[in-house]
Amino acid sequence: MQNLEKTLSHSYLRRVSKESYYTPDCILYVCCGSKCKKRGGKHLYKQLKSAVKEQRLRRKVQIIKTGCTDHCKRGPVVTVMPKNEWNFDVTDEKAMSLLEENAR
Ligand code: FES
User: Fold this and answer.
1) Is 94 close to ligand 1, i.e. is its CB under 6 Å away?
2) 34-55 average pLDDT score
């Protein structure tokens, strides 16, 4: 009986950990450093986060905010990984098209 409980809890833990830990296909890093924040970086971050949630894209695309990426004059900056694609002066429309492009 004790072994059964041990096995069940082990399989349960394995299942739970598979559901909790995943690696998305792509990550959009949104700069929310002070300059980018003033230029709409934080707004873009929130917009992208809610779009991912609404469209249930969590396993495909992850949105992460970063500190300054040293391209302040061209902010807001959104970087797409693993493509290593840097996007400057990103607008709301551009951010949503980046999400659409990378969620496929
Ligand atoms: S604050 Fe975004 S690049 Fe510096």
Assistant:
1) no
2) 96
Residue keyed to tokens 């072994």: 3
Helices (H) and strands (E) in the chain, counts: 4, 4
- Please state the rounded mean pLDDT for residues 65-91: 96
- Predicted confidence at residue 22, as pLDDT, reads 75
Q: Does residue 16 form part of some domain? A: no
Residue 96 belongs to some domain of the structure: yes
Pairing relationship of beta strands 61-66 and 78-81 according to DSSP bridges: unpaired
Is residue 27 within 6 Å of ligand 1 at its C-beta? no
Let me know if residue 63 belongs to a domain.
yes
The domain total for the chain is 1
Q: Please work out whether the CB of residue 26 comes within 6 Å of at least one atom of ligand 1.
A: no
Ligand 1: residue of 29, 30, 36, 86 to mutate (most ligand atoms within 8 A of CB) is 36
Res. 104 pLDDT band, cuts 50 70 90? confident
